[in-house]
Amino acid sequence: MAGKLSKVALKPVNVAMGFAAGAAAGFLFKEVWKLVAGEDDAPDAGDPDRGWGEILTAAALQGAIFAVVKAAVHRGGAITTQKLTGTWPD
């Protein structure tokens, strides 16, 4: 019962952390793109003035940053849950 209760109690925290992680990843991507490409905005896939290489590079970089941030937040949340409850989350 305690495990289910802690899971329910931590659900809103996990949702909030997910939103925060998405915002942080978006900000980080914009900053990295400025450094890599020297432009303020990443190319949009529908922009006819951008080439395939630029579009796919931006998408790959964005995906990599989002995946790393998501994994870091997920792992940090699991470790925090274990410290608070004494059990590793399912």
Notes on the structure:
By secondary structure, the chain is an all-alpha fold. The protein has one domain. Helices cover 78% and strands 0% of the residues. It contains 2 helices and no strands. It has helices at 2-37, 52-85. Helix 1 (2-37) packs antiparallel against helix 2 (52-85). The chain is elongated. The mean pLDDT is 87. It comes from Actinoplanes philippinensis. Pfam families: DUF4235.
Whole-number count of domains: 1
Number of alpha- plus pi-helical segments: 2
Q: What is the average of the pLDDT values?
A: 87
Report the helical percentage: over 70%
How many angstroms separate the termini?
14 Å
Q: How are helices and strands ordered from N to C? A: HH
In short:
The chain has 90 residues and is mostly helical. The protein has helices at residues 2-37, 52-85.
